[in-house]
């Protein structure tokens, strides 16, 4: 499709907005499901009698599945057609949601989350392709503003919605709520999305996919097994880490050979892309990993309900809502090398408050810290990605977008696994004591359990609960220190981001449509 065949007006007409409605609905489902589950992790621990590191796999498995299908979506859209594939992705996500609600074990839930992630991972990139074709590349800025709605609502609405559903119904409803939305979305997509004919496409790198995805999954499984074993010497830890690491290294060496590799690592010859990718990768590990722990602190140490924990997380989303539109405007006028380090500085200031937490830290301190972090986050994520892709040639944008998005998903998976391992190891250091039912436990574990079980609280010595909660709070603080150090480390590559205006190369000089960048989840 050429630019000449698209309406020349910069305004989004009714036909484009109708298509945008389908895409936004799918994006809301996909993004909300990441944040909704964050407040449910402690509930999964008690429901399935599993460690924090184990239940964190409900997040890690989902993001790994997202990373697996992002590179597949562009190739599959050309081969099978965007409308058909979008509806398949929506159906897969909806079916996966329904199955998650039927899970009887944590293993089943993790497996169903993978299925859900395989559908959810295709919704955003396919949605962007559909919208770009409907509106034309010259209206990408307005399209990104429309898709920014679910990205802003997710961090605020997800924890609140998840908390309300768990408190008023059960954890099953955080998945069941997707069923009616999915059905409406499928009907809407059938009626609103334009038909498109599949076209011949470039070959897909199945060999690369068979190395990268299992390699990452095995490596992260080994890391997540560390709290259970307590040592790297256990085969359950080192064997999957070794095999997974070898597969990832083999993938990196192999990826320079195919004409169309799964990840085009040759793009890292572009200095701007490399610096932006390194900055974002380190930042995602720290921020997304620690982000899962914020609601857990409110639930486990402070004894709040899941709804209250969700509401206490809202200042972060509000902060991001304020600065994201401002950062988007500044990104076109001011080099991000002058704005992103400042935004990261805000995150560092906000994050420091959580390194000081104890069992009685005032909520105004924690809320203020989350708000300042949100301000920084809104000025960090999208500008970094936009800068990375702006310097690429038109024919490189799709591959660059895929590369940056997969790095983002991998960073989120690594962050979730690493932070949950550190927290679990810290909590395991609490003094062992016999539980009321005769089994062996720790003071911290008993104190945390008593926060949600009043009958258990009445049977325990108040001094034991106080010691256990103090230890648990210190465990969270120690974990936050690790994340804080990583955020500070992020400032180093951020200082090398472009400090001068860069010429945009997103427009194809031949007037041909290019696949637009995929927004960060």
UniProtKB/TrEMBL annotation:
CDD domains: MFS_LmrB_MDR_like. The keyword Cell membrane applies. Pfam families: MFS_1. The keyword Transmembrane applies. Residues 19-502 form the Major facilitator superfamily (MFS) profile domain. One of its GO terms (molecular function) is transmembrane transporter activity. One of its GO terms (cellular component) is plasma membrane. Keywords: Cell membrane, Membrane, Transmembrane, Transmembrane helix, Transport. Its main location: membrane. It comes from the Bacteria. It is found in: Cell membrane. It is a multi-pass membrane protein. The chain crosses the membrane at residues 12-32, 52-73, 85-104, 110-131, 143-166, 172-191, 203-223, 235-254, 275-294, 306-327, 339-357, 363-382, 403-423, 479-497. InterPro entries: EmrB-like, MFS, MFS_dom, MFS_trans_sf. PANTHER family: BLR6921 PROTEIN (PTHR42718:SF46), MAJOR FACILITATOR SUPERFAMILY MULTIDRUG TRANSPORTER MFSC (PTHR42718). This is Drug resistance transporter, EmrB/QacA subfamily. It comes from Micromonospora chokoriensis.
